[in-house]
Amino acid sequence: MSSSSNMPNVQRFPTGIALEGEDNWWPYKWEVSLAVESKGLQGYLHGTIAKPSSTKPAVTVTSPEGMTTTPTATTPPYSQTPSPEAWYTRDRYVASTIVSNIVDPTGLEVDYTEVASEIWGELVKQFEQKSEELLLFHDSNLRAHRYTYPEETMEEHKRTMQNLLRKATNAGAVITDGQFRVIVLASLPRDWDADIWHLPGKTSSEAFIHLQGIWLQREKRRTEEEREEKKCHEAAEAECYAAGKRSELSQGDERGATKQGGEAERLSGAEANWSDYDRIIEYRII
């Protein structure tokens, strides 16, 4: 690794790891550190390998054929005394690893011409000053989230919790899978306690598998209860309708009887009046 001819290709990070901003600073930082350390170049990332003088004397040897050559001294990647050429090549490799894995280096005001350790130091300063507040924010969001049943399916809740976990870990939170499992169980409603009291398994994946089964059982019961409630409601409506019809018929009969009675009284009254009139006329004649 003494020249650019034998340097490996710069590693490109996948979407979500390449630096977009403060939300994914930590996974980006870890990936850069691993990529550089795997090549033995961490000294260039942290600035512990100083840039050598360009006037470093060359080593002159004589070949078997009697020709004089001045070879470049070969040094390992972690060498504290690399040649100027090797130092430059390795520094540019580390700088390329940093910059080419930033989604918008111009927007972050990254100066590619600076040495790798300076580029890295400015990014660390820019993002890690805010990281503690961001960590607390996302960690609190994860722990405070609650499952809303039946508005949310268990699959939707799973995706929400995993997304909140990703944001928290991206901000620097260290949450084990066992801790995440406990957080998931704590997010469930209190009336689920009996169902999850002895939930099998130890991982979050196992927890979600069993929670999906519990959700299906609860959905089945809820659907049956809604069906029965609908039947009772429809039966009550039918009974109410029938009772209303009976009441209308009864009221109609009463109105009819009242009308007939009134007519009879009217006729009877007319007859009575006519009889009196006849008697009056008869009396007058007499």
Any overview of this molecule?
With 286 residues, the protein is an all-alpha fold. Among the domains are: 7-52 and 77-129, no CATH class; 132-216. It has helices spanning 25-37, 42-46, 84-99, 116-128, 131-144, 154-170, 177-186, 193-196, 204-285, and strands at 61-62, 68-69. Pfam families: Retrotran_gag_2. Residues 53-84, 243-268 are annotated as: Disordered. This is Retrovirus-related pol polyprotein.
Summed up, what is this model?
This protein is an all-alpha fold and 286 residues long.
Mean pLDDT: 84
Q: Count the helices. How many?
A: 9
| Dominant shape | rod-shaped
Head-to-tail CA distance between termini? 156 Å
Protein name: Retrovirus-related pol polyprotein
Biased composition (Basic and acidic residues): 245-268
Region (Disordered): 53-84, 243-268
Pfam families: Retrotran_gag_2
Which helices and strands occur, and which strands form pairs?
Elements: H1 25-37, H2 42-46, E1 61-62, E2 68-69, H3 84-99, H4 116-128, H5 131-144, H6 154-170, H7 177-186, H8 193-196, H9 204-285
Antiparallel strand pairs: 1-2
Helix pairs in contact: 3-4, 5-6
Features:
rod-shaped, single chain, 61% helix, Retrovirus-related pol polyprotein, 2 strands, mainly alpha, 286 residues, two-stranded antiparallel ribbon
